[in-house]
Prior knowledge:
Elements: H1 6-16, H2 52-63, H3 77-89, H4 100-110, E1 126-131, E2 136-141, E3 144-150, E4 153-154, E5 163-172, E6 181-185, E7 193-195, E8 206-208, E9 212-213, H5 216-222, E10 231-235, H6 254-265, H7 279-291, H8 302-308
Parallel strand pairs: 1-10, 4-8, 7-9
Antiparallel strand pairs: 1-2, 2-3, 5-6, 5-10, 6-7
Helix pairs in contact: 2-4
Amino acid sequence: MVWRLVPILLLLAFLGAAQPRAEAAHPYLVCPINCDENRTLYPSSTNLQTGSDIRELQEHLSEAGFYDGCLTGVYDTETAEAVRQFQSTYHLKADAVVRTETWQTLAELVEPVKTSELPPPPTGEVVLIIDLRKRTLTVLNDGYPYYQFPVAVGKFETPSPVGPWKVLRKARNWGTGFGTRWMGLNVSWGIYGIHGTNKPGSIGGRASHGCIRMFNRNVEQLFPWVEAGTPVYVVGNIMGPHPRPTLVRGDRESGVLELQRLMIKHGYYDGEIDGIFGGGLREAVINFRKDHGLPHDDRVDSKCYELLGL
């Protein structure tokens, strides 16, 4: 298949104007919002735990042949016994306590079977393109598409960071819920990365708090192909879905990056392009609204978007 890269390259050139400084991110910060974190489940005869994660656990146990009950989302005696049998079969501590090891072993077991063999490691310069609309991660080798993986991306309310980034740090088993591999990005306003998952059913959807999820098997295959400093282009609508969300001081996201860039273009802002809505940007918004006859406010609303050409 012949890929036409011109539209992608033009979009990447546009995004490049909004790239924050690489040193703004810190490799050892803890992710402040982590929907990938799995809680520990405990068997109990009185205070039964409930939740969508337990329903997902029951689904996976059913797929693996250990549970044939109803998908209740309740960690009841029947579910706990199914967990205990699963743990015993896979040589885990058979106590029906669902910790990271149990989540991860079960997730890897129910991942779809690989349908084709991977090519050998790319020999040229590696670049990653993550398409938020198609939910794919494409590996480029010297500018040409080499291999493509399915991924899960951020939900609309917690979007993945659109823009040109780099791999800042790699780690194995970085934390619970992140699967077996982690590749952190140099996003200036938070900790985002490409990682495995204990929720394989989410792959192909909008499911995370902004990170890029992969099947554990796939992220393990990708991991040795990528080095610290590898470019990663996250392609999507930088301002998010319509209607545009109102931006206020304290917001941290890709939309703020674009707002900062436009405020510089219009001569109202001379600070960092870092995706963080701080005091300098707030002052710029107030002055912009004043000069354009809008009510005194420090928010970026639909009228501001219109005047900014968005």
